[in-house]
Design brief:
Blueprint lengths: L2 H6 L2 E2 L14 E3 L2 E3 L6 E6 L4 E7 L3 H19 L3 H17 L1 H12 L3 H24 L6 E4 L2 E9 L2 E5 L5 H14 L3 E5 L6 H10 L8 E3 L4 H10 L5 E5 L2 H12 L4 E5 L4 E5 L5 H13 L9 E7 L3 H13 L3 E2 L14 H16 L3 E4 L3 E2 L5 E2 L2 E4 L16 E7 L2 H8 L4 E2 L1 E5 L3 H10 L4 E4 L14 E2 L8 H7 L1 E9 L2
Helix pairs in contact: 2-8, 3-5, 4-5, 5-6, 8-9, 10-11
The structure holds nicotinamide-adenine-dinucleotide (NAD).
Length: 496
């Protein structure tokens, strides 16, 4: 590590707006906050300052059972509402979030260490998700009835699945909750949601603010550890479907626990998105694209542009442009106006990212910029570019989930496609080229649920989001999410 590397990045520190009133302390079950059956608590920390914001209950299997009971009790009445009624509730939720957006943004930034601009985008997208689902729920229909057997008329009904268990991660706490709550409720299900134990505040705030708008028991929140609360939700015999956004390991555990009751599983898991830069690409645009899409939310993003594959003929030029871009990134606390990236979510995750950087050094790759922790308080890591990465090096396939981008080279289009697909993940990828034939053929050969051309990480609420392979199955956003949280029933009438 050189002195220049050491002093390139510092943390811009500024006081953030005061944290608004914290949500009530307890489990949200049957339309109200109730005490957990556990006296054990989990610290909720501000990772940019290391201060403890509050504590929430380390919930128990009994808490989950009570919440599932409330969701079962509310299920039939909610399922019997019309799409218009449910849509009205979703629109009111969107309005309530919008009316309280400053409180949500401040709370989210304080609990995650993310810059104000990212928190603002999260809350705007959460509002949009509720509004989209409100419209989509009303526009959603099945095939018209018809005859497919003599004297018999077939009708297809789209029904809610029933009670849905939802498990969310820490990187976009309210947004990931919105991605599930909106279509789950829009499709007529009731739900029990477990937020990440590290970031429960905005989800609990949402419950507090919408308690009077959603019938009791339709939406329930239980805080607590994944291995207890998440596991009970996954195995619970009266939960009809369990949906998790999280790491591959947690997804595997959820699917295994769900198998006992043969419930449906919806998995949005990790990613390691390749960014394939061809020789004909606009290299400046590609470098800027990696700056924004590789480092958005500090790289703690499942679709992050974290693995560049660049054609060998332009590798030096592209790497120079990329290193310049990344050297200009401003690191800061949520209150610092110009902050582009904030802290890592927790001490444990900060240590995981630093350990991955140690491995990079041991593997003999070049750290072209960054690579170190930045002096605290707070769990900050320098924006980092790693070069000199050979095919199949561990960094090409391990999800680091931090402000770290690696650069590999390729020589032919076939090699680029083969190497890009050489990962257990299949969530997202991008292709950078000005060649129209390439822009049409390469995306079709890539094994990822979303492929951008000359862009990366632009999300549209109307379009499906989800992965292939180790990134899981199931789709968030779009009307496909409504499909995923519905079941079809065929009723055949004998007219003979
Ligand atoms: P994580 O897997 O550690 O935790 C996610 C959630 O699962 C948490 O609520 C946790 O408590 C719970 N959990 C943990 N063990 C469990 C178990 N045995 N049973 C049930 N639930 C359990 O993930 P994280 O660190 O919070 O989030 C980061 C991960 O999420 C990354 O891998 C990232 O790629 C992924 N992610 C994916 C998407 C997507 O859309 N595909 C979006 C955001 C994040």
């Amino acid at each position: 590590m050189t002195t220049a590397e050491k002093t390139l990045f510092t943390v811009l520190r500024a006081d953030a707006p005061p944290v608004p009133s914290l949500p009530p302390f307890g489990q949200f079950i049957g339309g109200q906050f109730v005490a957990s059956t556990s006296t054990e608590k989990v610290d909720v920390v501000n990772p940019a300052t290391e201060e403890v914001l509050t504590q929430v209950p380390a919930g128990t299997a009994e808490d989950v059972d009570a919440a599932v009971e409330a969701a079962v009790a509310a299920r039939d009445a909610w399922a019997a509402t019309t799409p218009r009624d449910r849509s009205a509730v979703l629109l009111r939720i969107a309005d309530i979030i919008e009316a309280n957006r400053e409180a949500f943004e401040t709370l989210e930034a304080a609990n995650t260490g993310k810059p104000a601009a990212v928190a603002e985008d999260d809350i705007s997208s959460a509002i949009d998700t509720f509004r989209f689902s409100a419209g989509a729920a009303r526009a959603y229909s099945t095939l018209g009835s018809d005859d497919y057997a003599e004297n018999h008329t077939s009708v297809i009904h789209r029904e809610p699945v029933g009670v849905v268990g939802v498990i969310t991660p820490w990187n976009y706490p309210l947004l990931m909750a919105a991605w599930k709550i909106a279509p789950v409720l829009g499709a007529g299900n009731t739900l029990v949601l477990k937020p990440s134990e590290q970031t429960p505040l905005t989800t609990l705030k949402l419950a507090e603010l919408i308690a009077d708008e959603v019938p009791a028991g339709v939406l329930n929140i239980v805080t607590g550890p994944g291995r207890v609360v998440g596991n009970r939700l996954s195995e619970h015999p009266r939960v009809d479907l369990v949906a998790i956004t999280g790491s591959v390991g947690s997804g595997q555990k959820v699917a295994a626990a769900a198998a006992g009751s043969v419930k449906r599983v919806h998995l949005e898991l990790g990613g390691k998105a390749p960014v394939v830069v061809f020789a004909d690409a606009d290299l400046e645009a590609a470098a800027k694209g990696v700056r924004s899409a590789g480092f958005w939310n500090g790289g703690q993003e499942c679709g992050a542009a974290c693995r560049v594959l660049v054609h060998e003929s332009v590798a030096d030029k592209f790497t120079g442009l990329l290193v310049k871009e990344i050297s200009e990134i401003t690191v800061g606390t949520p209150g610092a106006e110009d902050a582009e990236i904030g802290s890592m979510i927790s001490k444990a995750h900060y240590e995981r990212v630093l350990a991955a950087l140690d491995d990079v050094r041991k593997d003999g790759h070049t750290i072209a910029v960054g690579g170190n922790a930045i002096e605290g308080p707070g769990y900050f890591i320098e924006p980092t570019v790693i070069t000199n990465v050979p095919a199949q090096a561990p960094i090409t396939s391990n999800e680091i989930f931090g402000p770290v981008v690696s650069v590999e080279t390729f020589s032919t289009d076939e090699e680029a496609v083969e190497r890009a697909n050489e990962t257990i993940y299949g969530l997202a990828a991008s292709v950078w080229t000005k060649d129209s034939a390439r822009s049409l053929t390469v995306p079709r050969k890539l094994d990822f649920g979303t492929v951008w051309v000359n862009s990366h990480l632009v999300i549209a609420t109307e379009m499906p989001w989800g992965g292939f392979k180790g990134s899981g199955y199931g789709r968030d956003l779009s009307s496909y999410a409504l499909d995923d949280f519905s079941r079809t029933k065929h009723v055949m009438y004998n007219r003979g």
